[in-house]
Amino acid sequence: MFRTRAYLATLAVAAVLAGCSTGGNAGGNAGGDAPAASAGNDGRCEASGADFAIGKPGSAELLEQARKGSGSQTARILKPHDVVTLEYRSDRLNLNVDEQGKVTRVNCG
Question: How confident is the model over 4-17, as a mean pLDDT?
Answer without folding.
Answer: 64
